[in-house]
Design a protein that fits this description.
Helices cover about 25% and strands about 45% of the residues. By secondary structure, the protein is an alpha+beta fold. The protein has a 7-stranded antiparallel sheet with strand order 1-7-6-5-4-3-2.
């Protein structure tokens, strides 16, 4: 099991940072070899289920996630929790966005990640890889243009 935390600051207002991080389809734009499909109709929120499919062609895996907590970024702060429901990847992720007193926003991404069949002695490597991969994704989501509208 890998447990990691990513902290970032952004010049974006909290509601914009929140929107960029929680428009699930956008994650496919910043995570290589990954497609995201939202299974539930809009609007999002608690009960939203989406699948991140990572791989090439038929070789890959699905990371099935469900939003179990949803407090949107109103009045400068928001929090959501995702439960990973797949048979290969399990765990949870929490995304918090808050308004900074000076300007912009602060982001905290916490994640507990388990990969089936991965031996425990590789937990450190999984933690490092998760921190690197999700840290880059957060950076790219915050730096990219406005969220694309939900289809």
């Amino acid at each position: 099991m890998a447990l990691f935390r990513i902290d970032r600051t952004s010049p974006l207002p909290a509601d914009e940072a929140w929107s960029r991080l929680t428009t699930w389809e956008r994650h496919a734009d910043v995570v290589p070899l990954t497609r995201v499909h939202v299974r539930t109709p809009p609007p999002g929120g608690e009960g939203t289920v989406f699948v991140a499919r990572s791989g090439i062609g038929p070789v890959g895996f699905d990371d099935v996630m469900e939003v179990v907590t949803w407090r949107p970024a109103a009045e400068g702060g928001g929090m959501c929790r995702l439960e990973k429901r797949g048979s290969f990847v399990t765990g949870w992720a929490e995304i918090e966005v808050s308004r900074r007193a000076e300007s912009g926003s602060a982001v905290v991404w916490r994640e507990e990640l388990s990969v089936r069949f991965l031996p425990r002695f590789l937990d450190g490597a999984l933690t490092a890889a998760g921190r690197l991969m999700f840290g880059r994704a957060v950076d790219r989501l915050l730096a990219s243009g406005p969220p694309r509208p939900h289809a």
